[in-house]
Amino acid sequence: MLAIIGGTGLTRLSSLAVAHREMVRTPYGEPSSALLFGQIAGRDVVFIARHGHGHTVPPHRVNYRANVWALKNRGATAVLAVASVGGIRGVDPGDLVLPHQLIDYTQGRETSFFDGGDRHVVHIDFTHPYTPELRAKCLAAASRAGTALVDGGVYGAVSGPRLETAAEIDRMERDGATLVGMTGMPETALARELELPYAALCVVVNHAAGRGDSAVGVSMDGIVRVLEAGMGKVRALLDHVVPTIDRSAP
Ligand code: HPA
Question: pLDDT band for position 159 (50/70/90)?
Answer without folding.
Answer: very high
